[in-house]
Amino acid sequence: MRILLTGGFSGVGPLVCRKLYDMGFEVHVIDELTKESSKSARSNRKYYKKKTWAGISENDFFTDLANGFDCVVHLLEEKSAFTINDVDDSGIDGAWVTKCLLNAIRHSSPGAKLIYMSSAGVNGPTQKLIPPVDINTALNPVLKYAKGKAAAEKEIIACGIDFCILRVSEIFPSPGKFPDEMTGILFDHPLEARNEAITDIDAADAIAAAALDSLTTGNVLSKILYIAGGMEKGWQLINRELLSAVFGAMGIGMLDEECFIKDFSSYSMDWYDTLQSGELLGYKKHSFDDYIDMLRAHTEKGGAVMRLMAPRLKKNMESMSPYRRQE
């Protein structure tokens, strides 16, 4: 079976590509050409049949690519998602990329199933509600990234194509990638707020499992599922607990509290009801303690060098906070 994977060379995409390959799919990848995606395409060459670089300024750039696919796994970000914490609407159509893809599927692969990676952030600020957030929680996106996801969900539900929407919580990258990929956004986490993250490995498992199910049992079709680490796996935490454990495992200790935002008004993560998604997809492999152990093992592997670098790394990370610089 043939799968089109959009955004397959960035973020969690490479892990999803490998999972799909291991399941026996013929994977075709489309992504934007960047330094990161180009490097990823080379290192993952074994796992895909064909790659296509797309510039998202052409109205029909998906048309030829959607021909003859059994399933489309859509990870590629919307045109409007310039920065994840940008709250400006800017007038850009938040679902533009998804609209192009849906049009291509309807015309070229009308029987294809669609798996869409949305964000749990589409519910917006929910800290004043009683957790967990579930399918009955109202959509109220405040960040541009989440608004684009919510707009795309609306288009998908109305398009007539068999779909499954996965509202994925915050993805924590594998050890070694954490400082580069996470530091910039962690400062927007109020320390007393709830959060339920997930490892990139388990998130990729969930996405690939949804694709497989859509083409076999079909149990995921027409469903919107929350994907997160799981209460039973110890992932439902307060940010202070979560970040203290993470930075401790990295050998640098908790950052200065003044680095973190105190305003809850745009914070859009929470605890989630993942019972149904866990039963359908079986993706919750790693507990929070497992993740901390992986981080700690990576730190210990660096030995004396890592210990010597820890104070400077901590200072550098703290200097990146926009909130501390304003003091």
**H/E topology pattern:** EHEHEEHEHEEHEEHEEHHHH
Stretches where pLDDT falls below 50 for ≥5 residues? 80-92
Coarse structural class: alpha/beta
Distance between the termini: 56 Å
Largest sheet: 7 strands, parallel
CATH top level assignment of the domain at 2-173 and 198-227: Alpha Beta
Within the CATH hierarchy, at the fold level, what is the topology of the domain at 2-173 and 198-227?
Rossmann fold
CATH H-tier superfamily of the domain at 2-173 and 198-227: NAD(P)-binding Rossmann-like Domain
The CATH architecture category of the domain at 2-173 and 198-227 equals 3-Layer(aba) Sandwich
Description:
There is one protein chain. By secondary structure, the chain is α/β, with parallel strands linked by helices. It has a domain at 2-173 and 198-227: NAD(P)-binding Rossmann-like Domain (Rossmann fold), CATH 3.40.50.720. Helices cover 37% and strands 14% of the residues. The strands form 3 sheets. The chain has a 7-stranded parallel beta sheet with strand order 3-2-1-4-5-6-10, sandwiched between helices. A two-stranded parallel sheet has the order 7-9. The termini are far apart. Residues 80-92 have low confidence and may be disordered.
